[in-house]
């Protein structure tokens, strides 16, 4: 299961950071496309580059090194990268006129999928680096500086994970209150529409010890909420110190014991891997937030089978029922693909019916896009674009209605909010509700990084508006409690 859609997370490395050595002589600009895993990977790349004297910049023109961390999940991903490289070429030429050099790297899933083709089509690219090779960036940069065209797309994920955990030895630096932590990478599910098993490779889990160590360091550096990441995160099966294998439920229990980690989340999950222990963890753990991204993709048994999703709609309904019994308060989220080959009006109706029955708090939906190399790309009965568009609109209208209803149902509730950063207006902070909704409220800056009890007083189109409940200790309750009557 892949994580959030690319439109959601087209971020650039915006923050200026100091290198570990304090030697800020070089600047790196990282543009991140795609899911949270790419956001996490971009942070790791800048971590690896820091000891080389690189600090991040949000201004490409002053960058000595530009990295595009790319996504290949849907439509025209590679083409977008090539057109961005065209723009970068101009910036590079301008810098060259001023006597300044600029190296260009392409990382992420497009790098993995396209390999040498990238430096052939875009000669300004000095380095093509697949997701399993980021730990080698310093040596790859050295090679590129010597004029070699570097293409590194080997799948050596264990080496990558070993290296990632070594960063836990570095001095503790202050970090934002909410952060990602990769626990699992790759996928063995082979849904027939999806490139992930090809670009990210087979499923690999990090060891329990590596994850706990990294989470402890995160907590010590100010992180209050950790979202565990994996393309198929609930397939996690990591080795523990005693040689046994832990599932995600057990890992979450262990992480919930870490002082300072008030909140835990995980994404993205496959329905088939939602085991009893993980469901039980939702009932048991106060720090496990009541939000679950559990994509179903389609509500039609015929399409689910063609997608190789390995479950039926009834099995999905039964699973949702079990989850809601354990965690009645949970906000469900999902992904939907419209217009998979062979999808008829009736199949689409089945998807609409499933949505009506489940009632989602939020969801993402996409038109099916033929991904080269996947079985779906060559299936017969591809659905015409105009049909996909009409269906998508109808489906998004329903999902948006459900999201509004879910948001509106929070009005008048008091809930815990993790205050993450300053808001747009002076005196305002922005945080997250337990159900992952942004919440805006007036609060002093000193509260950034703390969990506060907040009454939800107003519902906006994209966020909730809240009011601090003075004097109420929020630290031990993650769910909603009714607001006192006025
Ligand atoms: N076409 C459309 N959507 C896709 N997704 C993955 N592959 C495709 C594709 N070929 C969607 C799925 C997945 C989300 C991250 O992206 O819904 O869950
Ligand atoms: Fe998710 Fe299926 Fe892709 Fe695996 S193959 S990442 S389960 S959509």
TrEMBL record:
GO CC terms, sorted: cytosol
Annotated region (Disordered), positions in chain: 1-20
Residue intervals of the MTTase N-terminal domain: 26-146
Domain TRAM intervals: 408-470
Coiled coil segments of this chain: none
Enzyme class: transferase
One protein family per Pfam: UPF0004
Gene3D superfamilies xref list: Methylthiotransferase, N-terminal domain, tm_1862 like domain
Keyword Protein transport: no
Domain Radical SAM core: 173-405
GO MF annotation, one: metal ion binding
Annotated [4Fe-4S] cluster 1 binding sites: 35, 71, 109
Cofactor(s) recorded in Swiss-Prot or TrEMBL: [4Fe-4S] cluster
Primary location recorded for the protein, binned into one broad class: cytoplasm
Keyword set, alphabetical order: 4Fe-4S, Cytoplasm, Iron, Iron-sulfur, Metal-binding, S-adenosyl-L-methionine, Transferase, tRNA processing
EC number: 2.8.4.3
Record: residues binding [4Fe-4S] cluster 2: 187, 191, 194
Reactions catalysed, as given in the entry: 2-thio-N(6)-dimethylallyladenosine(37) in tRNA + S-adenosyl-L-methionine = 2-methylsulfanyl-N(6)-dimethylallyladenosine(37) in tRNA + S-adenosyl-L-homocysteine + H(+); N(6)-dimethylallyladenosine(37) in tRNA + (sulfur carrier)-SH + AH2 + S-adenosyl-L-methionine = 2-thio-N(6)-dimethylallyladenosine(37) in tRNA + (sulfur carrier)-H + 5'-deoxyadenosine + L-methionine + A + H(+); N(6)-dimethylallyladenosine(37) in tRNA + (sulfur carrier)-SH + AH2 + 2 S-adenosyl-L-methionine = 2-methylsulfanyl-N(6)-dimethylallyladenosine(37) in tRNA + (sulfur carrier)-H + 5'-deoxyadenosine + L-methionine + A + S-adenosyl-L-homocysteine + 2 H(+)
Family: Belongs to the methylthiotransferase family. MiaB subfamily.
Assembly behavior: Monomer.
Alphabetized HAMAP family for the sequence: tRNA_metthiotr_MiaB (MF_01864)
Name of the molecule in the record: tRNA-2-methylthio-N(6)-dimethylallyladenosine synthase
């Amino acid at each position: 299961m892949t994580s959030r859609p690319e439109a959601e997370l087209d971020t650039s490395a915006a923050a200026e950071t100091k290198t570990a050595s304090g030697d800020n002589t070089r600047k790196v600009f990282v543009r991140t496309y795609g899911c949270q895993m790419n956001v996490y990977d971009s942070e790791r790349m800048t971590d690896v580059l820091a000891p080389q004297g690189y600090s991040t910049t949000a201004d490409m023109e002053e960058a000595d090194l530009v990295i595009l961390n790319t996504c290949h999940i849907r439509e025209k991903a590679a083409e977008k990268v090539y057109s961005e490289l065209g723009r970068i070429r101009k910036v590079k030429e301008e810098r060259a006129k001023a006597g300044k050099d600029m190296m260009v790297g392409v990382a992420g899933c497009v790098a993995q999928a396209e390999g040498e083709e990238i430096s052939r089509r875009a000669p300004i690219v000095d380095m093509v680096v697949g997701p399993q090779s980021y730990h080698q960036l310093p040596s790859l940069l050295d090679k590129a500086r010597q004029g070699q065209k570097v293409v590194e797309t080997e799948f050596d994920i264990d080496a990558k994970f070993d290296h990632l955990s070594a960063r836990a030895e570095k001095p503790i630096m202050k970090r934002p209150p909410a952060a990602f932590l990769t626990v699992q990478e790759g996928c063995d599910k082979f849904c027939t529409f999806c490139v992930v098993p090809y670009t990210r490779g087979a499923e690999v889990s990090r060891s329990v010890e590596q994850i706990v160590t990294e989470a402890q360091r995160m907590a010590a550096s100010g992180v209050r909420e950790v979202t565990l990441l994996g393309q198929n995160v609930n397939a996690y099966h990591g080795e523990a110190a005693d040689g046994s294998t832990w599932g995600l439920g057990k890992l979450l229990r262990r992480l919930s014991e870490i002082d300072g980690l008030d909140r835990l989340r995980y994404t993205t999950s496959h329905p088939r891997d939602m085991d009893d222990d993980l469901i039980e963890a939702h009932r048991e753990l106060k720090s496990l937030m009541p939000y679950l991204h559990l994509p179903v993709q389609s509500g039609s048994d015929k399409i689910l089978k063609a997608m190789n999703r390995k479950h039926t709609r009834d099995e999905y309904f039964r699973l949702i029922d079990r989850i809601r019994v354990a965690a009645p308060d949970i906000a469900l989220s999902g992904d939907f693909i419209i217009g998979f080959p062979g999808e008829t009006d009736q199949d689409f109706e089945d998807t609409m019916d499933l949505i009506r029955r489940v009632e989602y708090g939020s969801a993402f939906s996409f038109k099916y896009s033929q991904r080269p190399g996947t079985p779906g790309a060559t299936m017969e009965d591809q659905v015409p674009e105009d049909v996909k568009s009409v269906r998508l609109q109808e489906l998004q209208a329903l999902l948006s209605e459900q999201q509004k209803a879910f948001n509106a149902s929070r009005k008048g509730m008091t809930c815990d909010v993790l205050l993450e950063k300053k808001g747009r207006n002076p005196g305002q902070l922005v945080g997250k509700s337990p159900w992952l909704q942004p919440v805006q409220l007036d609060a002093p800056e000193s509260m950034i990084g703390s969990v506060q009890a907040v009454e939800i007083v107003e519902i906006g189109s994209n966020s909730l508006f809240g009011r601090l409940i003075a004097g109420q200790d929020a630290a031990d309750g993650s769910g909603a409690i009714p607001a006192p009557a006025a």
